[in-house]
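We modelled the chain as a single entity of 243 amino acids. Its sequence is:
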Amino acid sequence: MNSPANMLLANQIPSKIAAMTDTWTWLRLKAAKDRMLQLKTRGQPATIQQVTIPRKTSEEVTAAYRHQRSKSIATYRNLVSKGADQCQLEDEVSKYVTKLDVDSSLAMMKDMQASWQALRDQRRYLKVLKTGMASENAMLARREEILDNNITAEMVPMVHTCDTAEGKSGYQTKPTPMVYTRSLNALVSSHLDAHEKLGNLHWHDGLIPSKEIWIKIGADKGGKPISTMKFNFQIVNVKEPNS
């Protein structure tokens, strides 16, 4: 215990005795298993473990050296956790594992083309790993904020090619999901506002007049067996318009 009395007593130990004690402790450490020994005290025994201060960081050494360091850390973790290694390790790792924010969660859902039920299943696995993603309510609220009540989806009757008996002359009318924007002007403006905030707007060294915004319109009729017609637009006034 580092009480003032103990510190005063330690400072009064002659240097020769302190040097001899250091040598004796070092010899015992070299002979001890796992370079670890215990010293008797008036209370709990004091554990001394050899820790070599490296000259290189873990980023600079080979995988084999990093593995050796991990073994040393694991030994110390076992001591301070009183054998509860896994619990202690989970606490350490939790400080470095971050939860996916709302925008990242929505982006993952889009890229994976995942349903809400699929995300619920993923949350159960992420919970085991002591991490997670944004809540479903937060994602829904953020989605509405992004769409700004400007995107509508509904089922409408549409004509499809058909090779089965239900078709007539090779065609069939059936309910089909359709997504459309209520205001194209508002949708384009929202994209322009986002690019402006991020500093992405670019006029390509005068190729585009300073008071003009160029928009490219595209369409894709889709292919068989399910033809999905898609329309899109692309803002040219950005640094990499074709990416």
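As a brief sanity check on the tokenised model: The longest strand covers residues 151-161. The CA atoms of residues 39 and 46 lie 5 Å apart.
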